[in-house]
Specification:
The complex is a heterotrimer. By secondary structure, chain B is an alpha/beta fold. Chain B is 35% helix and 13% strand. In chain B, helix 5 runs parallel beside helix 10. In chain C, helix 10 crosses helix 13. The chains are: A alpha+beta, B alpha/beta, C alpha/beta. Chains in contact: A-B, A-C, B-C.
């Protein structure tokens, strides 16, 4: 699966897709889902909650592993992907689109500059 | 030592393979000065026959209830166990298997546990049961810890009529978990006074913990408590340690309980001087991922055939480590399967008949004792198979008198609950014949006469 | 599979059997209750109507023979020690002697109520008292509680005592527990309930405790180090004494996870090595059966200093030889069980120790260690070994040789079932990628070890020549690989009637 060129990527393997200039759609990358294996459950935060960059916003569980998901940038949760409640497998089948997790209102757009672009992230994966 | 099959010759060959001449070389990584130079101080080994005779002698020093009429309860209930139960569960295939880590070759244990889970939900009226915890005390302690995670509040209102050992175990488990325990006093009739739930203080309650039948044998009005707790927004933890009562009493799951847990020893496990018993634990769907302990789920194999596996393991210590919902690993699986075989044998009608028989035995005894001079039924609330009696003078003395006359009396609860005077908890089950009940009453009457 | 005669295999008489609920027939009965020998009572007046339930919906109605066939058939779908070799690492699946079941089943024990007055329970109390003494002697520690129901509860009990000890000295900053990255998951989970904070210690390059990793933590916040010895790689922690001293010098205590005690009995006493608290798994080391997951029993042994913190009650003997419970324990951490622990399991362990005696106990550990080293040497050419040195009761391989053929540890494990063996522990310890953890125990003969070794060698060969066969295994058990993802995604945790009338 290819990594969308207009997304930003964190070292913890979350992505941010910026929409309408101020909002970010956040999920875990294809690499992250592949490492986890079959995702069976996703725990997401309450809408309205404000979280700092680096805070845990959710938990993804596969059959034999659990990982925390970290905020790539600071922001307020404005929506969560309720589809995942009944169809956690979307994180595996379509991580960068239908498998999104949260929509946030980004507090400081300049924080995005600290994230990687597609090329940098692909390099990062190579090094791992 | 006949449990070690290794012959001298094999030992020699194997040592050669590993490049050693003496077994002691295999322990050279242990600092020499710490290696024992002499044998441990343990008794001489015994042959199988000798050890059996020795254990029989020890067993004979005890007074089991099939030999000496007994009226003890208090979280350990004497019931008849159909012979099929130990015969089936004693099979080596069940007894000598490990935790079903490899489901393909563990379907027997897994299906039986799935059936156990199902029957526990049927009995309690709750949607989900786990595959067992250690005992009732630990199950209730885990319920408190779980309720704290779910409610994210520290305060628990605990009925004073919760079995004292359960209460102490909660304190042990919750000591370092920022939990505040508030005692709910008793009403005149021996049920729990729930006025606190209507006070403003109850607003930040995480849960209320109520046992039914409670320690004093009184059946609690779970329905009313269930309605009240809805107003305060706290969780209701209902504790049951006499599961036979659910053969006839309304299941707490139908009365708005959020967690129903306790001990299911009554379902086919011998009293066995206190263990092994069977901690059971049930929750509602919304709290499934906070539930402690293993749980078995249904699935299919690669060819689509029905099968069972341990599931939702990410809650557990081997994956989540310090963030696990409990530290439990080994549970009481064989006890759970025993309960499954017991419930299967008794079935829908047998469980009800058995429950009714217990109610009758206790009601008969209760009415006889009530008519004795010097003895009173301490609480007026309805009871199942255990009730509280006020006795003349100290219970300790009475129990000594009874034991001298070949009867093991009830629990002396006067030290734990001095505010209720000299009280004895008396339990009568289907194992107590009418002859035993009459003998007990006769002895109490004679003792009563001696006192006055 | 090549030579069918050589291996036990897993094909045979297997009958199908539905869930018991699907066999239920209305009004069928399989029970016989004692007679109602009481005078006529008015049933309606016995309980207030509002407390009485409707029938137990869904509960089956079966004949006695239905129940017998049901559970007998289910039992045939299990693999057990009584069937064959069960080399689960860290689980000590040794033979469970039948005499232990007989002694534990004596009516004088099974029908003894836990609150029976001490004078009518002297035999039970004597067993518990003596078992405590034996475990104390084996561990080299001065006092024992039998109350914990399993190893994890033993850990919790031990860690609570450590916390209570520090608090009793108003040394309450000590909240850190150091746990090696090779430890069982119960170690951190138990520590957290005891109000302690865990820090993971990276193992050294030799797979053992590393003084360099330890040093930064040696300060006033250290409550305890939790170690497993031999560790989960089956290796004796050779710096155990030195490390224990370092921890003690800075005011911390040392907890030893006794899961692997089967390697050390009669050889070395953990107490002599400086350990302060040790839990013992009777269902591993002392031959009591696992029962498909429990019940176990997890006694805890402690030093004299920690004795006051043991759970209440303790068992004492008076000068006249009368055994009794002593409830006066003001510093006790309290109770972890409603009664005294899993007494039925204790009888089995007691019987085992009495059958073996001191020499038998030592021979157990010697044979267990010889068997493990033999296994290691024989399999070394075929499977990669992460830390190749003298092992104790178990040895750890991994799948790196087979990985090049795309065959994983899980595949090897499943293929072993076709050869008639229970697989070893897999993917643990976590510090060995694709770990295969083999613990043969002393109960197994050289023939059995050789059979298993031959099977492993055959699988290593198949991995090269016919990897698909390994990956498609098992083929012989009742079921093939189960879909754990489906089980977790669409959770079905109980039977639901296929058609509910009136619904």
């Amino acid at each position: 699966m290819s990594y969308p060129s207009d997304y930003k990527y964190s070292k913890d393997h979350e992505y941010v897709n910026v929409v309408d200039d101020t909002f970010g759609i956040v999920g875990i990358t294809d690499h992250a889902q592949e490492q986890l294996g079959d995702v069976v459950f996703v725990e997401l935060p309450e809408v309205g909650k404000k979280l700092e960059k680096g805070d845990v916003f959710g938990v993804v569980e596969s059959v034999k592993a659990v990982v925390d998901c970290y905020m790539p940038v600071t922001g307020e949760i404005v929506a969560v992907n309720e589809e995942l409640e009944s169809q956690a497998e979307l994180v595996n089948s379509d991580p960068h689109s239908n498998g999104w997790m949260i929509k946030i209102k980004i507090e400081d757009l300049s924080e995005l500059d600290q994230l990687m672009d597609k090329a940098a992230y692909e390099n990062y994966l190579q090094e791992q | 030592m006949h449990y070690i099959p290794m012959t001298e010759e094999e030992r020699r060959q194997m040592l050669k393979t590993v490049g050693a001449t003496e077994i002691s070389e295999l322990f050279e990584d242990i600092p020499e000065s710490y290696r024992l130079k002499q044998l441990l101080k343990l008794p001489e080994p015994m042959s199988e026959w000798d050890v059996l005779c020795h254990l029989k002698k020890l067993a004979e020093k005890n007074e089991p209830f099939d030999k000496t009429p007994c009226f003890l309860g208090g979280g350990s209930y004497r019931h008849c166990i159909p012979s099929v139960v130990p015969a089936l569960i004693g099979r080596g295939e069940f007894v000598t298997a490990y935790t079903p880590y490899q489901p393909e070759i563990s379907q027997g244990t897994l299906q039986a546990l799935f059936e156990y889970q199902t029957m526990i939900t049927q009995l309690t009226g709750m949607p989900i049961a786990n595959a067992s915890l250690y005992d009732g005390a630990m199950a209730v302690a885990e319920a408190v810890l779980m309720a704290q995670r779910v409610a994210k509040k520290p305060k628990f209102a605990i009925s004073k009529a919760l079995t004292p050992g359960y209460r102490t175990t909660i304190e042990t488990y919750a000591r370092h978990q920022n939990v505040i325990l508030i005692d709910l006093p008793l009403n005149q009739d021996g049920s729990t006074d729930i006025a606190y739930l209507q006070s403003p203080d109850a607003n930040d309650l995480a849960a209320v913990v109520i046992q039914s039948p409670n320690y004093f044998g009184v059946i609690e009005d779970i329905e009313t408590i269930g309605l009240l707790k809805q107003n305060t927004g706290c969780l209701l933890i209902t504790v049951i340690n006499e599961m036979i009562s659910l053969g006839i009493l309304k299941p707490p799951g139908e009365l708005r309980a959020d967690i129903v847990c306790g001990d299911a020893q009554s379902l086919g496990l011998p009293v066995s001087y206190g263990g092994p018993y069977l901690g059971f634990f049930t929750v509602r769907e919304s709290a499934l991922r906070q539930m402690p302990g293993r749980v078995v789920g249904m699935t299919v194999d690669t060819e689509g055939r029905q099968g069972f596996v341990n599931t939702l393991s990410t809650r557990e210590q081997h994956i989540r480590r310090e963030k696990a919902t409990s530290n439990i690993c080994t549970n009481q699986a064989l006890c759970a399967i025993t309960a499954a075989a017991f419930m299967a044998t008794l079935g829908k009608q047998g469980l009800r008949e058995l429950a009714l028989l217990n109610v009758k035995k206790a009601a008969y005894l209760k009415s006889k004792i009530a008519s004795l001079d010097g003895f009173d039924i301490r609480f007026s609330g309805p009871t199942f198979n255990e009730f509280t009696v006020s006795v003349p003078g100290s219970v300790k003395k009475l129990n000594e008198y009874l034991l001298n006359n070949g009867v093991i009396g009830g629990i002396d609860a006067s030290d734990q609950f001095p505010e209720y005077g000299n009280i004895m908890l008396v339990c009568a089950t289907e194992t107590n014949t009418r002859e035993q009940l009459d003998q007990f009453v006769k002895l109490l009457a004679a003792y009563g006469r001696e006192c006055f | 599979m090549t030579a069918k005669t050589q291996f036990p295999g897993t094909s045979g008489l297997t009958l199908e059997e539905p869930l018991m609920f699907e066999k239920s027939i209305k009004d069928r009965k399989g029970y016989s209750l004692p007679d109602d020998d009481l005078p006529e009572l008015n049933n309606d007046s016995l309980l207030p109507a509002k407390y009485v339930r409707d029938e137990i919906s869904g509960m089956p109605e079966l004949s006695e023979l239905d129940v017998v066939r049901h559970f007998t058939r289910l039992s045939t779908w299990n693999y057990s020690i009584d069937h064959g070799f069960y080399p689960l690492g860290s689980c000590t699946m040794k033979y469970n002697p039948k005499i232990n079941e007989v002694t534990a089943g004596l009516c004088g024990f099974t029908h003894l109520h836990p609150l029976t007055p001490a004078s009518a329970a002297q035999g039970a109390l004597e067993i518990m008292y003596r078992l405590e003494k034996y475990l104390s002697e084996i561990s080299g520690l001065s006092a024992v509680t039998l109350q914990p129901s399993a190893g994890a509860q033993g850990e919790l009990t031990g860690m609570l005592m450590i916390k209570a000890f520090h608090q009793s000295r108003t040394d309450s900053n000590r909240n850190i527990v150091l746990i090696p990255d090779s430890a069982h998951g119960t170690n951190p989970a138990s520590s957290v309930i005891a109000g302690l904070t865990t820090r993971t210690l990276a193992s050294g390059p030799d797979g053992c405790l590393d003084i360099e990793a330890l040093t930064p933590h040696l300060n006033g916040n250290l409550a305890a180090l939790m170690m497993t010895n031999p560790n989960t790689l089956g290796i004796f922690e050779k710096k155990a004494v030195e490390i224990t001293k370092l921890v003690h010098d800075c005011g911390g205590l040392v907890y030893m996870d006794g899961a692997n005690l089967n390697a050390l009995m009669g050889i070395v006493k953990p107490g002599d090595l400086g350990v302060d608290v040790l839990h013992i798994n009777l269902h591993k080391t002392f031959a009591t059966p696992h029962g498909g997951g429990g019940p176990g029993s997890g006694p805890v042994a402690v030093t004299k200093t920690l004795e006051p913190f043991l759970p209440a009650p303790s068992i004492k003997i008076d000068p006249k030889g009368f055994y009794y419970f002593d409830w006066h324990r003001p510093l006790s951490i309290g109770k972890v069980h409603n009664f005294w622990g899993n007494f039925g399991v204790m009888i089995k362990a007691y019987t085992y120790i009495r059958s073996l005696g001191a020499e038998g106990i030592r021979k157990v550990s010697e044979a267990a260690v010889l068997n493990a080293n033999y296994m290691k040497e024989r399999l070394k050419p075929y499977f990669h070994i992460a830390y190749d040195k003298l092992c104790k009761h178990e040895c750890i391989f991994d799948d790196s040789f087979q990985h090049q053929h795309d065959v994983s540890t899980m595949d090897i494990a499943k293929r072993l079932m076709d050869y008639g063996f229970h697989p070893p522990t897999v993917y643990f310890p976590l510090i060995v990628k694709g770990a295969l953890m083999i613990e043969p125990t002393e109960s197994e003969s050289k023939d059995t070890l050789d059979q298993f070794i031959d099977a492993m060698i055959a699988i290593s060969e198949e991995a090269k020549t016919n990897p698909e066969r390994v990956k498609d295994s098992p083929t012989l058990p009742k079921l093939k690989r189960l879909d754990e993802t489906k089980a977790a995604r669409q959770t079905v945790l109980k039977w639901i009637p296929k058609s509910t009338p009136n619904a």
